[in-house]
Design a protein that fits this description.
23% strand; 5 strands; Ubiquitin-like (UB roll); 2 helices; alpha+beta; 17% helix
Length: 92
Amino acid sequence: MPVIVRVPTQLRQLTGGAGEVPVEATTVGEALRALDELYPGLAERLFDGDGALRRFVNVFVADEDIRFASGLETPVAPTQTVSIVPAVAGGA
């Protein structure tokens, strides 16, 4: 069974409007790379030149921020949801 990757509105122009994409993966990194294989161009929005997540990109497995787990090596089980959440800044 696949993992579901939730794509934020800001990146849906790259996924043909899809908000949720099923991929085969056992880690968050595999899921995000699989997403880029299906929709080329996503990786450059998510990863920096060293292959690390860009600092304004937050990723959650279920409700857990992967920064407080094992990062891109965080395991994902079939049917779990990986959510890409862009950081929001601003205010007064």
